Amino acid sequence: MTPVLSVRALNKSFVMHAQGDLSLPVLRDVSLDVAPGECLALVGPSGAGKSTLLRSLYGNYRPQTGSIRVQHRADWIELVDAEPRVTLDVRRHTIGFVSQFLRVIPRVATVDVVAEPMLRLGATLEDARRRAEFLLSVLGIPERLWSLPPATFSGGEQQRVNIARSLIAEYPILLLDEPTASLDVANRDGVIELIRARRDAGAAIVGIFHDVTVREALATRLHTVEPAGAPA
Amino acid sequence: MTGALLSARGVTKRFGGRTACNGVSFDLWPGEVLGIVGESGSGKSTLLNCLAGRLVPDAGSVLYETRSVGSVDVHNLTEARRRLLARTEWGFVNQDAREGLRMGVSAGANIGERLMAIGARNYGEIRGTASDWLQRVEIDLGRIDDPPTVYSGGMRQRLQIARNLVSSPRLVFMDEPTGGLDVSVQARLLDLLRGLVDRFHLSAVLVTHDLGVARLLTHRLMVMQGGQVVEEGLTDQVLDDPQHAYTQMLVASILPV
Predict the structure, then answer these.
(1) Shortest Cα distance from B220 to chain A (angstroms)?
(2) What digits encode the pLDDT tens for the residues A101-157?
(3) What is the CATH number of the domain that holds A86?
(4) In Å, how far are A58, A95, A117, A134, B228 from A111, measured between CA atoms?
(5) How far away is chain A from the Cα of B187, in angstroms, using its nearest Cα?
(6) Cβ neighbours of A60 in B, within 8 Å
(7) I want to staple A171 with a disulfide (CB 3.0 to 4.6 A). Which of A96, B179, B204, B214 is the partner?
């Protein structure tokens, strides 16, 4: 199948100016392709750069060289050095990201935190709220919490709110950074089901899953990320 | 024309021998919120005032795409035209609400005055719209006839925002809109601003030294140091993967909560 996400020769170092311009190479010549219906699991030792790669794919980190191309609506878009509004449009329509932590917006009700990405795509408030409530219930967030801001929720609850928010817009490409990290088994299985359904519906997924059960349930392919080591 | 709403090219402003703002260029697109961050004295407020036509730059130009007559050079307009533009298409939220409000007249009149300046004449409608806006910025309607002198700092700032947004501007300039407010008052104001910007698809240029404010409200950031833009990009890129030594220092200086 034709890929919708294509990475070529990606290089990323972090230069720490406060440490005498110390350069830490993290990604060296990373290339990969992901097609619809695939779930690529990034594997490799801690510190190898899996999260850095995932964040680069979302346009959050800025690689120095190489290419990240995504199928965005009818076009292919280059994300490395893309203009902010281009990256934002890709995030609005094409790429969803589930991080381990919810960046809480003060005073906004959980149901509206979840509904927001769908509203931005032009859905009515009613439709977006209904879909948000469905996802929250599948993910086991009790109804009495839906009208509260998630700031005071437990880590596991916040993570599930985050997952609901990232899945509501049905992005063609999903990036998952440890989506089940702080969940118990019952909730973990709910998350697996939702993500598997997105994959089987044709989403292209790249994820980091330390939990072997989750990885085996979701991954269709593994991609090993090698530590970049010392600068050449 | 590129389709940008506001285009700055080489904007430079000197005060005596000191260059407050040096060769700044950027395009602001419709619906974008651009943050300008940097420490006190980095030139960010000078730049904002040049963009908004309140200071005349020594070099460079600021182009604005108007609703009706196409692109205009902000600093080539007559004073009357520039004021009309500021009244009908722009808003300017000052850090000190006293500078952006008329302190001697009621809250309702502060909002209504803006409507009258763009042609509203029906008293009932003006008062109705003023009431709507007071509610939108979470001010109790029972306070509509009070002057802002008897308002708290947070309420004044919210009133200033209502006064600015009632005329449906396309572009809003904000200079440290949450500066000098208590943290809890700040959070409420930020949240309100965020909702209003989203709901009315406003474009905005926001000056702040608070990176948390920038994270919550802006799409893009420009980092200024000594009058120069040293780094720019998507807000989360700049804050999560800062490239320039000065930005790295700023981000590393955020106190954890």
Answers:
(1) 7
(2) 777 667 789 999 999 999 989 999 999 999 999 999 999 999 999 999 998 898 889
(3) 3.40.50.300
(4) 24, 21, 12, 10, 42
(5) 7
(6) 234, 236-237, 240-241
(7) A96
